[in-house]
Amino acid sequence: MLRIDFTAEDLGRLRVAGEPDPLWEITLSLHLLQNRQAAVVFDPWRREVRAGLARAGLTATTTALTRLVPSAAYFPDFLTPGQGTAPDLHTGIELVLSTPRRRLAAELAQLCPRGPVPPLVRRLAEGDPRALQGLGGALRRYYAIAVEPYRPAVREAVRADRSVRSDAALRAGPDGLLRSYGPALTWESRTLTAPYPHPRDLPLDGRPLTIVPSFFCVLMPVTLADDGLDPVLVHPLGPAPGWLARARAQGRLGAADLPVGQLIGPTRALVLDALEQPRTTTQLAELLRLTMSTASRHATVLREAGLVISERRGHEVFHVRTGLGDALMDGAL
């Protein structure tokens, strides 16, 4: 059982993340690929993702990632930085790769307390630059297959959950907000309790608790292992069985099926949809299986139309949607 005690001041500091956190969705979806939890809900996704990973030649890469994120009570906290508020995948991965070496060594040591340490884990624990860059690439490639294509369904679930939480908070303040998480979470006498693999108290110590909704979190909430980090509580969104089939039938998982596709063309609509978060031309080409020249041409046309901006970060140029591009994709124009 997990127990979190609140003071009146703690209730005033309570926060709820407004968007899914890409790094939490990566780690928790990796858990689901290693177990059969919520089989009725997620088995169609498991089959689809495993096939997609195999086609992309990422089966071995995913196996390596599962050694860092085992389906167990512990996995390293540095893989989910930003206290549940990483704004996009690129920023989240940069935070992962900038983890201090001492912290890498301490957290990774807990993965293999008794058995032999796999070479990848050892190199990461030593802060090897090539191993860290390889980890960043693996996370990006895995996300592109296992999470990115399902982002519309994830966003829809998060928005629906946020509406429920907002209504509860407006009606009854922080007490009402925390009660709205029942029955998964129990709120009574300023104490929040939840099922957990082992008995644990999570001290707030005057720090704000951030509650993070997660599509791929199932059965019970998850929190960081280190009490010294700013407290985060990740809670399951609990999609209903058949979510994947319904989303496909309704066209929510393909930008080409959106009305904007009829205006700017299906491929350009896919490019604009993908640029909800910053991406290089190379990343766009890999994600959408386009040639570099085609991806560059679409990005240029969208930029000239004011739907995308491009900015240099070091040696790379990233493209991202503008407010006008967001409005077009959301049908707000």
TrEMBL record:
Residues 262-333 form the HTH arsR-type domain. One of its GO terms (molecular function) is DNA binding. Keywords: DNA-binding, Transcription, Transcription regulation. This is Helix-turn-helix domain protein. SMART domains: HTH_ARSR (SM00418). The keyword Nuclease does not apply. It comes from Streptomyces jeddahensis. InterPro entries: ArsR-like_HTH, HTH_ArsR_DNA-bd_dom, Metal_resp_trans_reg, WH-like_DNA-bd_sf, WH_DNA-bd_sf.
